[in-house]
């Protein structure tokens, strides 16, 4: 009888641990992970705007300031502002050179919360 309780408690703890781990991975890449998956990307090149330092100072007060998104276009990694439309930087990083999981994240639109995260990514994967 005691052995049955021990097995039941072990299975409950295992289930709770799996749920905790799953919730951590879902929120690790930012809020609304399903919105990123369902977002449709147009086949044509999106309209982008280069931001001058003067415009950047004006727009930095928005709630999306400091957020960046990595996206793939023509096999290359592009960096967009938090609005997902304003091009911040074209990189020389080929998506195929990234680790497989990172390739998938970039294709789905990987969110970087801070400029430090962005520069860390660029430093690690630029040649």
Structural write-up:
By secondary structure, this protein is α+β, with helices and mostly antiparallel strands. Helices cover 47% and strands 18% of the residues. It has a four-stranded antiparallel β-sheet. It is elongated, with a radius of gyration of 20 Å. About 19% of the residues have low confidence.
Question: Which features characterize this protein?
Answer:
four-stranded antiparallel beta sheet, 18% strand, alpha+beta, 127 residues
What is the gist of this entry?
The chain is of the alpha+beta class and 127 residues long.
DSSP strand (E) fraction? 15-25%
- Shape field: elongated
Helical coverage, percent range: 40-55%
Number of strands: 4
Compile the SSE list and pairings.
Elements: H1 2-28, H2 33-38, H3 53-59, E1 68-73, E2 76-81, E3 87-94, H4 100-108, E4 110-112, H5 115-125
Antiparallel strand pairs: 1-2, 1-4, 2-3
